[in-house]
Amino acid sequence: MSEQQSGIAGLRQDLDEVDSGIVRLIAQRSEIISAIAQVKEQGPGAIQDPAREQAVLDGVAAMAADLGVSASLVRRIFRELIGDSVAQQARRLNGDATGHRVRVAFQGVAHAFSDAAAQKYLAGRGLDGDLTGYPTFRDAADALLAGQAELAVLPIENTTAGSINEVYALLREHDLFIVGEETWKVDHCLAAVADVPLSAVTQVLSHPQGHEQCAQFLRSMPQAALAPYFDTAGAMRAVAERRDPAAAAIGSPEAAAANRLVILRRNISDTEDNFTRFVVLARDAAPVDVRIPCKTSLILVTRHEEGALLRCLEVLSGSGHSMTKLESRPRPGRPWEYMFFVDFEGNVANPGTAAALDELRSAALYVKVLGSYPAKALREPARSGGLPAAPQDESPAEMLEAVAAAPAAPAGRSRHYKLVDRAARQADTVIRVGDVLIGGDGFAVMAGPCSVESEEQINATAKFVRDHGAHVLRGGVFKPRTSPYSFQGLGWQGLDLLVAAGRQSDMPVVTEVMAVDQVQRMAKAADILQVGTRNMQNFDLLRELGKVDRPVLLKRGLSSTIEEWLAAAEYVVAQGNQQVILCERGIRTYESATRNTLDLSAVAVVRERSHLPIIVDPSHGTGSRAYVAPMAWAARAAGAHGILVEVHPEPEHALSDSEQSLSPPEFAALMRHLAGIPASPARG
Ligand code: PEP
Ligand code: MN
Question: Among this protein's residues, is 278 annotated catalytic?
Answer without folding.
Answer: yes
